[in-house]
Amino acid sequence: MTMLGHAGLYLETTAGSILCDPWTSPAYFASWFPFPDNSALPWDRYACPDYLYVSHLHQDHFDPAHLRERVGRDTTVLLPDYPLDDLRGALATLGFTRFRRLPNGDPVELGGGLRVAITAVSAPVDGPIGDSALAVADGSARILNQNDARPLQAEQIAAFGPYDAHFLQFSGASWWPLAYDLPARAKAVYGRAARRNGLARARRFIEQVGARHVVPNAGPACFLDDDLFDFNDLHGEDHNPFPDQSVFVDHLHRNGHAGAVLTVPGTVLEFAHGQCEVRHPAPDPFTAFQEKEAYLRAYAARARPRIAQERRTWRPAGTRVDVLTALKDWFEPLLRIADHICAGVGGPVLLDIGDLPLVIDFPAREVRRWNGEPCRYRFRFERDLVERLIAGHQVDWVNSLLLGMRFTTSRVGPYNEHVYTFFKCLSPERISYADAWYAEPEAPSEFIRLDGWEIQRRCPHLRADLARFGEIRDGVLRCRMHNWRFDLESGRCLNAYSHRLTARPAGDA
Fold first, then answer.
1. pLDDT at residue 78 in the model
2. What are the φ/ψ torsions at residue 174 (nearest 5 degrees)?
3. pTM listed for this prediction
């Protein structure tokens, strides 16, 4: 296996090769760059894989420019079994024609002893309506490429193992709390919790999989624009939500995981019969971590012309867009078919777009000028960026604008999942799928007993097994997988407005 940077992997077996998630182009309006820099890799060597696996459509995994220019079309694409065909359609637009959709979680023989399984997750909160993990075995080794998916079908994953190596995300991919209008002290408190929770969550995945070796990947990106540079974790600050690979490896070593491996783009890992041989591309490969600030400033200087070029594309050619009319025409038909999402948001959301304050009024199902009423949720966007989204009809603003963190936001009260679901579902197909998800939540089919309570076995948030990850204290259930909490008496979620838990005192009829 050759590490290609971020979530990029190139797997070579006697039965064929698999290219996974190659990413080189600046993402999210040139906010994210691969860290460490992977531009010097011999990309022609990875241009003709037998199989291509793109885990999902986030821009740091699906890189259209790279796939168009540097990957041959004769490859067979291994597709996750997503309910929507957005990923296949995007790849077909680039000229790929050979697709093999894998049934969710089921092992498939590709020939020559090469066996794979793709676990797809497809809740509205999973990536851009879908994320996935890839398991591969060739008779000499088994690996799980989880990247930044959250696969919770523990039985299916375990059945494919035992694993020689586990590749997974460990660092933040969220604008919380850095993009929020919060005092610096509050940002530090929330950032410290986000960093701690992210590391602990990744460690729980590792313990669940039980692989001999653990390789952190799929993050973090680095921020090279002057406006965003301070988002980088330059000195291992405990309040920065973007710890790097070396931080996570140290964290694992301190917690007893001796098999954690630090890599850089170009590192080769050879797995065979329980052993792992590691070859780095240079005698001193870890400069990016040991001298991080100097490394990133030099990287930023190299990237500055590319960022300037990207900025010049943000304002569409011609006259300015009539943003209010465009968003009314686009959003209002979606609001009319989003019954459960509109009810879940439950109020107006304010968009400050340059000097134009607009409201998405979810109860009234309309887009209009703000009339001064209080709004629980507020976003401030650059007008050029919004006009660019309109011109390109970008149906996922999370996967284009929000992850890039070129905005600010505020809220009163808890996080509301429905707000962000709307922004990633700006097409009739996506909004219909997501609204149906909320309309027909998975009914609890199995209950467990825990500390005097009968509770549904699966967490309402992302279906974690509460028999393993649930704990009760002072009438509150906490799911340790993602730290979501539920009041047992009422079933109300204490983190957000989006979920309810079914629970009753043990022994009640």
1. 98
2. -150, 155
3. 0.89
